[in-house]
Design brief:
By secondary structure, the protein is an alpha/beta fold. It folds into 2 domains: 2-123 and 301-330, Alpha-Beta Complex (Quinone Oxidoreductase, Chain A, domain 1); 128-275, NAD(P)-binding Rossmann-like Domain (Rossmann fold, 3-Layer(aba) Sandwich). Helices cover 25% and strands 27% of the residues. It is built from 9 helices and 16 strands. It has helices at 49-52, 128-141, 159-168, 180-188, 202-209, 223-230, 260-265, 282-295, 311-319; strands spanning 2-9, 22-29, 36-45, 61-62, 67-74, 84-87, 94-98, 109-110, 148-151, 172-177, 193-196, 214-219, 233-241, 269-272, 302-306, 326-330. Strands 3, 5, 6, 7, 8, 15 and 16 form a 7-stranded mixed beta sheet that branches. Strands 11-10-9-12-13-14 form a 6-stranded parallel beta sheet, with helices on both faces. A 3-stranded antiparallel beta sheet has the order 2-1-4, with no helix packed on it. Helix 9 links the parallel strand 15 (302-306) and strand 16 (326-330). Helix 2 (128-141) crosses helix 3.
Length: 331
């Protein structure tokens, strides 16, 4: 019998999640049944949506999230012992997975053939964040070569990939990030311009970086920053709304300049999305992302925390913007 540990959320978050909002529960796993696999977790993902989705769940609940794990026992011939799998099983060190179950974030699947890349990419650039950048940008913004693209949260897991994909597609790319070190890194990976939104005059800096206006905007943060960007978009611009991390820890309704005049007079298209819309096409995205990484066109970066007991710290650090690239935890 295997002893397992997991994080259980015991209350709805009020503002920034607190350590006492989580319990670490130790329990014995039963023997597996037909159609099940026992897995040992190797990599755990921490992502902004985990904060955003908290009010949608009734505590207590197991903290959800993506993980890469290796099969230690199997009663499904499709997943022999030693197979690495990706699932949305959450913050735990061992778990039993029903291989036929389909949840809101998809079904368990084999880790793609990463051709020598770290298995951690399975919860990052070749996982849900990679698919989010790929489909959320290409399917909604439909960029054309020569257009100007703006990305907020540009040094994060998704934003940094969106900017690089935009460059692959021949676009001029402007990124917003929260400190000077991140700004310099964005320039290193090919962004044409990068702006520290905390210190810059945002409207003036964007006008300088994108003098011909903005054609596509990939929005990770919302708030006043997004309102400012929308007013500098070109006619018939396209906006892909991935998230609003600037407001996730707010208790009240956040305030920002109204955007309806920009939407109407510039005839903008603005669309929010959940990446599970394209879950059946994930292999398509993964194949392209792996190809781009190996060719050097896409340079993923990871912010690695080690230890099961440090998952909470990695989560809070990510929400506070301490990570550059994808925040992952190695167990």
């Amino acid at each position: 019998m295997v002893k397992a540990r997991k994080y259980v959320v015991n209350k709805h978050f009020q503002g920034i999640p607190k350590r006492e909002d989580f319990d670490i529960v130790e329990y014995d796993l039963p023997n597996i049944k037909n159609g099940e696999i026992l897995v040992k977790v190797e990599w755990v993902s921490v992502d902004p949506y985990m904060r955003a989705y908290n009010p949608r769940h009734k505590p207590p609940y197991d903290q959800f999230g993506y993980q890469v794990a290796v099969v230690e026992d199997s009663k499904d011939p499709r997943y022999p012992v030693g197979t690495r799998v990706v699932s949305h099983t959450g913050w735990c060190d061992y778990s039993i997975i029903d291989t036929n179950a389909t949840g809101a974030m998809g079904q368990v699947y084999k880790l793609p053939n990463l051709k020598g890349l770290s298995a951690s990419y399975g919860v990052g650039s070749v996982g849900m964040p990679g698919a989010t950048a790929y489909f959320g940008f290409l399917e909604i913004c439909k960029p054309k070569a020569g257009e100007t693209v703006v990305v907020t949260g540009a040094a994060g897991a998704v934003g940094s990939l969106v900017g690089q994909i935009a460059k692959i597609k021949g676009c001029r790319v402007v990124g917003f990030a929260g400190d000077d070190a991140k700004v310099e890194w964005l320039k290193e990976i090919g962004f044409d311009a990068a702006i520290n939104y905390k210190t810059a005059d945002i409207a003036a800096a964007l006008k300088e970086a994108a003098p011909k206006g903005v054609d596509c905007y990939f929005d990770n943060v919302g708030g006043e920053l997004s309102s400012t960007i929308l007013y500098q978009m070109n006619d018939f611009g396209r906006v892909s709304v991935c998230g609003s991390i600037s407001s996730y820890n707010d208790i009240g309704l956040p305030q920002a300049t109204i955007v309806q005049p920009a939407l109407v007079f510039k005839q903008l298209k603005i669309e929010g999305f959940l990446v599970v819309r394209w879950v059946n096409r994930f292999p398509e995205a993964f194949a392209e992302l792996i190809k781009w990484i190996h060719s050097g066109q896409l340079k993923p970066r990871e912010h690695v925390t080690e230890g099961f007991e440090n998952i909470y710290d990695a989560f809070i650090g990510m929400l506070n913007g301490e990570n550059v690239g994808k925040a992952v935890v190695k167990l």
